[in-house]
Write a structure and sequence with these properties.
The complex is a heterotrimer of chains A (280), B (348) and C (248). With 348 residues, chain B is an alpha+beta fold. Chain B has 11 helices and 13 strands. Chain C has 248 residues and is an alpha/beta fold. The chains are: A alpha/beta (280), B alpha+beta (348), C alpha/beta (248).
């Protein structure tokens, strides 16, 4: 039966139930959902969903959990800054939302296999990168070095602090963290995220793939520094946030010059977008 | 290709028959020198020689506001909403039809937009050879003077009381013969239609680009940093008129409203446009095109390059509606592209 | 909804036309009112005391003593909504501001001007923080319903930030400038469904300036392109848009 005969519309979400909710910082919480129809999202790292709080609206969220075979549960982490996110933060376990997706491109896991991965997570960028990172940790043998750079505006805005501390304690993961503005208790690095790059020991540029997500201002500086270190442009993957609205490449809001971030992205190989004036 | 001859006096019964089956829309004069499509009735006088319809016909399959889903907020369930009335647009000019064909490609590509597709499938299009060229139009130079696909019938007025009617689809032919058989067109009539087309195309080519339209994408690629964008955008009201009247623009916003009982609700889409200030604004107040200059430039790149990069034709068909709709007089793709072209000629 | 939110209506200098619009909703109003408890409503009933979940306040502030009352309402209200042009943008009351108190006070009160303490008219937000605005003169009933529903949902009410031109294009209207007429739709915040132009009139600007209104471009359109005099343009703009930092 074709989708048409099934009265199909790509604008109809399917229901999912909140199964877990966890506070990550003052403003950010983690939400775990299970689709009510028992069908997995079958997402890949870097993809996003459109989440509906009926009556309030629909908004895009990166999937933060890695692909899993044994469970249909998926996680998003959300900063409470808008109408939909406000409503989401009031949601209680057992209550439902609507979900469309997964949408968009993803980090090509196969390409990263056997190579070193440099994760560059600025601010909330850790949320989508966590999907790829946790996938690699689950299949640790298939990947080379895992280097994780985490930059946050200030210590209060750090998220997934326990998980990052666990990572830092592992011998097979290298974690570097920094904050732009420290507080009295902060003992780590201070400065923007590019200040971490020179600290990485004996990086092999040709064998290193970069996965980068952060605030709009971050990309061009990190990309420039990565290239200075000798990492080929084709090894750099970025995920670009725009105003995804329909998720289908129709509504026009997420356009970066001539490409739609929702279907041609959000994950781009840098060489695909380096000539686009509006990209980074 | 099959073609028939239809005489003016045969049209009345045909229109009456068609309007029994579906909503029929025809171009009429709505005010002094202004034309638009309106529902047909026997009292309407069809403006066979209209120059351009004030509103683009996209509203017939991409309405300004359209419901997408109905939802139950408590149960968190949703069902699609489809509305697709049978309709006939009689008198569509080739440049407008080219715009429809373009919308079809974009709405069907990737994940097909079912709301658009269903309306489109229920829409019969009878194209009409223009007899006049609007003062603001430049379709003759944009490759939009002629279109081979997308019509169910193509009408050319070959004498004060006769049309040469080319069949584009079985559905069109069936409607044409709904009141009985018609004579097939003669070679002489075919020749008369060809002459009429040649005449109007020659007239249309008189106003337009000063270079071949295929050069536009490359011209723009060289002119991202042109001073023209800032110069023109100073006068931009960011009112969106140019994109909203554009027959190839399809950007939309999605919103929703609860019913008065606060239980169910409707999610709908509404026309939006890249020229409006908060079009690219994301949560956290970052605006990816915060300046009028950036929005203004985006529109010309979209019309002249981005759409071309996607489907191999320009996103501007040269209808000239934006030229007219822009109260500040800055929205004119032909003038913008020509200015960029001429500036380059002076440099070299 | 466990407990019904308590709402109230208050008015300052204005014609109470907006509350009349709400009363005119009749059956639909009763449906919405099923979700709320009414505190005060001049046009429907009187009496009742705070605190309120939502206070709808109509009219502009024209006397120093209005400020005290408005501040008291603000203190008693979780959400304060400005209702109608007088409350949101100052409205036509601000026309007097261009005259100055030395002129308008004797003009209105004659030799008793000293008895009445009035000052330049201003919108609510000039005195207290305002949480939401329902623009228009008068307000659009559908917009009132929508905003009320959105507030009951805890949602920030949607308010277009683009000009009326957008809604004219949606309606398929013929632009007033086709005939060289003046129309403030090019700078006025949309949300009225372009109702005046749709009905054959022009936009008077009752919903206030759109946040990104390009005044220089608007003057160019009205004076240079439409060929209207500076004075005519000024008169039109001063009718509703009087309370602004822009020179009119």
């Amino acid at each position: 039966m074709s989708p048409r005969q099934a009265n199909f519309s790509p604008y109809v979400p399917r229901p999912a139930t909140l199964v877990r909710k966890e506070r990550l910082s003052d403003m950010v919480s983690l939400f775990a959902f299970e689709p009510d129809d028992g069908r997995s999202l079958a997402h890949k790292p870097g993809q996003f969903i459109m989440l509906s709080m009926y009556g309030v609206g629909e908004a895009p969220f990166s999937i933060s959990s890695p692909p899993r075979r044994q469970s249909v549960e998926f996680e998003i982490a959300v900063r409470n800054i808008g109408t939909v996110t406000n409503a989401l933060h009031e949601l209680e376990v057992g209550q439902k939302v609507g979900v469309r997706g997964p949408h968009g491109t993803f980090f090509p896991v196969q390409v990263f296999m056997g190579k070193d991965t440099l994760f560059v997570a600025g601010g909330l960028g850790y949320i989508p990168l966590r999907s790829l990172l946790h996938y690699q940790l689950r299949h640790r043998d298939e990947f080379g070095r895992i280097i994780v750079l985490v930059g946050t505006r200030n210590p209060q805005e750090r998220i997934f602090t326990d998980q990052i501390a666990e990572l830092a304690a592992r011998s097979d993961v290298e974690v570097y963290e920094t904050v732009d503005v420290p507080d009295a208790g902060w003992k780590g690095n201070v400065g923007v995220i590019t200040t971490l790059l020179p600290q990485i020991r004996s990086l092999q540029p040709d064998n290193t793939y970069v996965a980068m997500v952060g605030p709009p201002v971050m990309y061009k500086f990190v990309i420039a520094d990565c290239q200075k270190m000798g990492i080929p442009a084709g090894n750099i993957y970025v995920s670009l946030e725009r105003k995804m609205k329909c998720g289908l490449g129709k509504c026009g809001h997420c356009q970066i010059n001539g490409v739609s971030a929702c279907i041609d992205g959000p994950v781009f190989k840098y060489t695909e977008i380096q000539t686009l004036k509006e990209a980074v | 290709m099959t073609a028939y001859t239809v005489y003016m006096e045969q049209l009345g019964p045909l229109l009456a028959e068609w309007s029994r089956r579906m909503g029929v829309f025809v171009p009429v004069q709505i005010q002094e020198a202004l034309y638009d499509f309106v529902p047909w009735s026997e009292h309407e006088e069809i403006a066979w020689d209209y120059d351009v319809a004030y509103n683009s016909i996209k509203r017939h399959f991409f309405p300004p506001r359209e419901n997408l889903i109905r939802f139950d907020a408590a149960a968190c369930t949703a069902t699609p909403v489809f509305e697709a009335p049978d309709q006939l647009l009689f008198g569509v000019h080739p440049y407008d039809l080219k715009a429809v064909n373009q919308l079809d490609q974009i709405m069907e590509g990737g994940a097909p937009d079912q709301n658009y597709m269903r309306r489109r499938e229920k829409t019969v299009i009878f194209a009409l050879q223009p007899q006049r060229v609007a003062a603001t139009a430049f379709w003759g130079s944009m490759g939009s003077g002629h279109v081979d696909i997308g019509f169910d019938l193509f009408w050319t007025k070959i004498s004060p009381n006769a049309f040469y009617v080319e069949v584009g689809s079985p559905r069109g032919e069936e409607l044409l013969l709904a009141c009985g058989d018609l004579p097939e067109a003669t070679l002489a009539e075919r020749e008369a239609a060809r002459r009429e087309r040649t005449r109007i195309l020659a007239e249309a080519r008189g106003q337009g680009l000063k270079y071949p339209w295929e050069e536009t994408p490359r011209l723009l690629a060289r002119n991202w940093d042109s001073k023209l964008w800032r110069h023109k955008a100073r006068r931009c009201l960011s009112c969106g008129s140019c994109v909203l009247v554009c027959p190839t623009c399809y950007c939309f916003e999605v919103r929703e409203e609860m019913d008065v009982d606060m239980k169910g609700g409707t999610r709908f889409r509404e026309w939006d446009g890249c020229m409006l200030p908060s079009f690219a604004l994301v949560a956290g107040d970052h605006n990816f095109r915060g300046q009028a200059l950036e929005r203004y430039r985006h529109r010309y790149f979209r019309k002249g390059k981005y759409i071309y990069d996607k489907i191999g034709e320009l996103g501007c068909v040269g209808c000239g509606r934006c030229v007219r709709a822009c109260t500040a007089g800055i929205a004119n793709p032909m003038a913008v592209y020509n200015e960029l072209w001429e500036a380059e000629q002076h440099e070299s | 909804m466990a407990k019904k939110p308590k709402i109230a209506f208050f008015d300052f200098a204005g014609c109470e036309g907006d509350q009349l619009q709400i009363a005119n909703l009749e059956e639909t109003l009763l449906d919405v009112l099923g979700h709320v408890e009414i505190g005060e409503f001049r046009e429907v009933r009187t009496g009742g005391k705070g605190p309120y979940d939502i206070a709808f306040v109509e009219g502009s502030i024209t006397m120093p003593k209005d400020e005290e009352r408005l501040k008291a309402i603000r203190a008693e209200s979780k959400t304060l909504v400005a209702l109608g042009a007088c409350a949101t943008i100052g409205g036509i009351n601000c026309m007097k501001n261009f005259l100055g108190p030395g002129v308008y006070r004797p003009e209105v009160y004659g030799d008793r001007a000293r008895w009445y303490e009035t000052y330049d008219a201003r919108p609510l937000r000039a005195v207290v923080p305002v949480d939401a605005e329902i623009h228009g003169c008068p307000i659009d009933r559908d917009e009132f319903l929508r905003v009320t529903k959105e507030l009951l949902l805890g949602k920030k009410p949607w308010l277009p930030d683009y000009p009326v031109c957008v809604e004219c294009k949606m309606a398929g209207n013929v632009c007033r400038y086709e005939f060289g007429e003046l129309c403030l739709g090019i700078i006025t915040r949309a949300g009225c469904k372009a109702t005046c132009v749709t009905e054959g009139a022009r936009c008077w600007g009752c919903r206030g300036l759109a946040p990104h209104a390009n005044m220089d471009a608007a003057r160019y359109v009205m004076e240079d392109r439409a060929g209207r005099s500076r004075l005519e343009v000024q008169d039109l703009m001063r009718m509703y848009l009087g309370y602004t930092s822009t020179t009119l």
